[in-house]
Amino acid sequence: MVAEFTSLLVSGNFAAAIKCLDVEIKQALSTNSSKSAQLLCNRAYCYEQLQLHRRAVKDYGEAIDRTSATGGASAQAMIKQGILLHRLRKGNYAQEAQQLWQSALTACTPLTDVSLILQAHKLLHSPGAVAAALGTDDPQQSWAGPASVSNGAVAAATVRPTANGTAAPHTSQAAKPSPGMSAAHPTPTRDPSDAISLAVTQINSGRVDEAEKLLSSIISETDKRTPNLGAHVARGTARALRRELQGAVEDFTLAVEHAPTFADGWKRRGQARSAMGQNQEALEDLQHAIDLFPDTDAKAECHTERGMVYQKLHDFARAVKDLKQAVKYQPKNLQAWNLLGLCQTSMGDIQDGIRAYQRAIDLQPNHREAWVNMAQARKEYGHVAEAEAAFTKALSLDDPKNPGVHAIRVLAQMKQGLGDHWAAIRVLTKTIELDRNPERIQCLFLRGACQHALGYHKEAVHDYERAFSIDSSNKEKVSDEARAQQFLAFYQKELALYIRKHLDDPVTAFCLDKDLHPIFKEQWCKKAPPTHEMIVRYVMQPPFPSEPSTVAPADQKQVRQLVDGADAIGAVLVYRHQGFLPNKRQLRMGGLATLEMAQTLRHLVAERQAGRKVMVDTGGASGGGFDARSGQHEFSWRDAMDIPVRWRQLSEPNDQVIWVDLLTKAEFEAGFGSHTPMFSGQTKCVRYYMNFERALRLMKEVIAQEGHTFDAKNKPVPLASEDKQAEVQAAKTAADMWKAIGKDSWVVVPIASTSRPGHTMEGTRLTIVKVPTQPDAFEFSIRTPVTPPRWKDFEQEFQELWEGLMQALAGGHKPLIAHAALTYVYYWYNFMPLARGTAVTGYITLLAIFLAADMPITAFIPKNYQVDWEAILARSPEPFIQSVSPWLYPPAARETLQSSPSGQGLTADSARTEDPLADMITPAQDGTPSGAVAGSSQAAPPTTGDEEGGAVKGEGMSSNADNQGGHTNASSGLQAVPSPESSGTEAKTSVTSSAAKAAAPAPTSFGSSTSGMGVAAPPKLPNVATLLDTMRKRIEALNGPALPRI
Questions:
Q1: Contacts of 557 by beta carbon, 8 Å cutoff, 6+ apart
Q2: DSSP percent split of the chain into helix, strand, coil, nearest 5
Q3: Residue 812: how many CB atoms within 10 A of its CB?
Q4: Contact between 319 and 327 (Cβ < 8 Å)
Q5: Nearby residues of 10 by Cβ (< 8 Å), 6 or more positions away
Q6: Are strands 760-770 and 778-785 parallel, antiparallel or unpaired?
Q7: How far is Cα of residue 395 from the mean position of the Cα atoms in its chain?
Q8: Which element (helix H / strand E) includes 614?
Q9: Residue 17 near residue 8, CB atoms below 8 Å
Q10: Which run of H or E residues covers position 783?
Q11: Cα–Cα distance, 213 to 696 (Å, whole number)
């Protein structure tokens, strides 16, 4: 054993010597032997030769502790540790070293090695002694020596997380050149180990070029006999820092080939390979290192490195596993906690990520990246107040002259998502003109979009033009996201010019869906660059008009009344679930659209009962096809839906709210439609994962019923066998289901027609695909392709549903109206006729029908409940109605019809106003609006946010996900004409649903009401379509009086 150990030391195989010492130390520690301190010192010496200084410090420290515990002292360990502290230059190293040497001298006795006594004395009193011990001729260098590279030797090959989850290289600061050796002639003049120590000092001082030349000189001298592993490891480190990664890998490879048990060599090569993109090889090297390292600190470093590699591969599940192991070994590993948070939030586990970021912040309160990551996570979850506080903290840590642009942009996005576009503009304006702004294109686009929404079209066009005019030919400087936003800037610029052209035209005189060429809308929806066909066929919008508007503004007192009422109504348009922001602009939009639609419905019913048809100008309506530009047609279900759709388009023009049948014929026939993932890759989609289990169960039901799915080529995938069915039914995850089916596939959820008993319609598609660019990744989503046959089927259904709804409203039977309303929106949600915005327009429709029927909805949507998904995951209207009605129905919707003896409809008691919201469209004694929700027998609005974060998170359909836009109504252009089918006779109640028919009483008439709906007078609030008859007036109503006029 002694001979073998001596041979290893003489040959310089210190890695193998350490393995021998590991065995001896383990045995000595188990028996509490006094030999353990010397063994620890010997191992520390070997670590020093391999430049593993931190481990050497640890061993010297343990040797000191061992001897102290037995009442003795290890002068050797104290002296060596003090020297190492000078080499590492960490913390108050000089004072700590002095204290160690003084302790060593104090502990000496006549039995102590005399050379140690003299060395301790010289180190205490002679700076030159320290320089000699460090192997440098410069006393100043020895007394203020740089930190060792031992725990970050391949710092350039490591990555650290940033705010947007990308990796950034770590570099050292440059230092002044040392006079101790000429950079031009780095010829070693002393023992190679001293020269290597000097080279390590140079590396840590930033003098990497000098160090590499010195180490190359050592290697050329010593490798003639046997490779100097220490020199190769140090040179590999220097090369890694200079980004000469292939050379670094070669040096580390030589080290591990000659010393296979040298764990640090495996780790460093793994780091270098990771930086080269050799990810699988890097993972293998790091696993070798984990297996070889005896102590948990070193293992933690390797697990952190592996976590970084997995994060880069988007294999977040494996990254989280490694990073959890890292923080288990090293609870104070700041880097691991921060990266763990990134990976957990990337998987959709937002709350877990927030907790990890908090641990990182607890360890280092001014860790900017952790604060930025925390802010983003809070924003994604919907913790608005906490997110803003985190953004503020992160930005306070920046240089005011060079703030973090990405954090500012994300903060502006949050402001936009909250409906505070003006605040977003102010935030972005501070950064756009910075000299160094790597996200200038994105910032310009976002500011342009905010100005566009507020009606400041000239400024918006200017920003859009600047964004798409920036040269994006250099792919290294312009990200894919920036290039995509340059394309969007072109489309948005054209939209801004289009709206400006029609800003003062009656809103019923034009239709965005018809006026913009289908190929333009298709490319805009796809966020794709303009094609040759589009360039040839699309006619550019005229430039910004120079003449000021001569149109008189709307009466501001009436607008204020209208806006107050809209705000009260829109307050219930809220999804209280993670990922949704309380967008005040969208809530107001929803309220205005609800009022306009309710007023229109009342007018339609009154005209119907008077025996007159209501006609609408075809040119300003979306129905009738792209070429229908003139004439009139009878008001239909689609004209009703144009009201919320127009408002949705207007309030957030950055969203592609488009009728799918008005895209290109080819795209319509190909089945363009919505796509909403619940699980994507390895990520639980923040907003919609809550529906995953129900959707998976529904997919199983359909497969059990149909016995097959369809593949990507629309061919059946047989699954009827008993074994396959068992495998499908046992699936619990997206991966399980994909493996059971064996390929990418989809099923159609069949839904029952209400108007055509026995007829089955095509609901949504539940789709599962394997993600090829990500390991162990699958996507489970709803995809609803809207094809001409499917459109025709739903259009036929809606014609019957619309007629049934109008008859129910005319009949005045409130429970029947409620049933008809929910049935109508059930099919709207399943139809998904818009490229975006189906959810909010559907709920606006529901609010409008109830409001028109004098039973306004004041109940808030329950927490963690999504109305549109309740419809999408139901195979007929009845389960949807059973789910929604208990919390949504006002009291009147639950009552049975009370017929008066005269048979004239609702009695005075049953027609009473249950809530002040009803006053918004019914007469009031004082002529003033209520403007608030009060006196309701239903649930009051929440006053606080979720229990965990304490933030107000009234997330709702007003959020940017699916609900940021608007559209206007044709009601101001409605014309009443006598109906040839009617001679003014009484309207009779009728329904389309067999279940509703069974519940309905005998038909009654509405003979005593002047409005035709059991109310006594015209609406109390101003008519929306009349007061806000132009785009300018509508945008200014959405903006409110505090913002500058358009």
A1: none
A2: 55, 5, 35
A3: 27
A4: no
A5: none
A6: antiparallel
A7: 20
A8: strand 612-617
A9: yes
A10: strand 778-785
A11: 63
* Residue keyed to tokens 């160690």: 100
Nearest-angstrom CA–CA distance, 775 and 732: 19
Rg (alpha carbons) of the chain, rounded to whole number: 37
Encoded tokens for 591: 């309220």
Using an 8 Å Cβ cutoff, are 988 and 670 in contact? no
Classify the phi-psi angles of 206: left when phi > 0, otherwise alpha if psi is within -120 to 50, otherwise beta: left
End-to-end CA distance of the chain: 90
CB 55 within 8 A of CB 47: yes
Distance, CA of 348 to CA of 340 (rounded, Å):
13
Structure tokens at 30: 């188990």
Give pLDDT, residue 135.
Answer: 61
Structure-token match 């984990």, residue found: 290
Q: Cα(330)–Cα(296) distance, rounded to whole angstroms?
A: 8
From 755, 782, 778, select the one nearest 767 (Cα to Cα): 782
Task: Match 């017929």 to its residue by tokens.
Answer: 899
Q: Which token pair is 802?
A: 């619309």
Greater model confidence, 99 or 496: 496
Q: Which two tokens stand for residue 226?
A: 């046997």
Contact indicator for 738, 746 with CB cutoff of 8 Å: no
Of residues 490 and 164, which shows the higher confidence score?
Answer: 490
Task: Tell me how far apart the alpha carbons of residues 213 and 242 are, in angstroms, rounded to a whole number.
Answer: 13
Q: Which two tokens stand for residue 211?
A: 């160090």
What's the whole-model pTM score?
0.76
Which of 586, 582, 580, 691 has its CA nearest to residue 350? 580
Residue 862 CA to residue 867 CA, distance in Å, equals: 9
Q: What are phi and psi of 96, to 5 degrees?
A: -65, -40
Phi, then psi, of 664 in degrees rounded to 5:
-65, 150
CB 909 within 8 A of CB 899: no
Q: Which of 848, 852, 798, 855 is closest to 824 using CA atoms?
A: 798
Half-sphere exposure of 976 (CA within 13 A, CB side): 11
pLDDT in tens, 418-456: 999 999 999 999 899 888 889 999 999 999 999 999 999
What is the DSSP track for 239-297? HHHTT-HHHHHHHHHHHHHH-TT-HHHHHHHHHHHHHHT-HHHHHHHHHHHHHH--SHH
| CA distances to 112, 502, 794, 842 from 620, in Å | 102, 12, 23, 21
- Buried-state track 401-437, b at ≥16 Cβ within 10 A, e below 16: eebbbbbbbbbbbbbbbbbbbbbbbebbeebbebeeb
Q: What's the pLDDT tens digit per position in 802-855?
A: 999 999 999 999 999 999 999 999 999 999 999 999 999 999 999 999 999 999
What residues are paired with 745 via a beta bridge? Answer: 768
Strands 159-161 and 167-169: antiparallel
Backbone angles phi, psi at 785, to 5 degrees: -70, 130
CA distances from 565 to 492, 561, 921, 941 (A): 31, 6, 10, 16
Contacts of 727-736 spanning 24+ positions with Cβ under 8 A: 728/700, 728/703, 728/704, 729/700, 729/704, 731/696, 731/700, 732/696, 734/679, 734/696, 734/768, 734/778, 734/779, 734/780, 735/776, 735/778
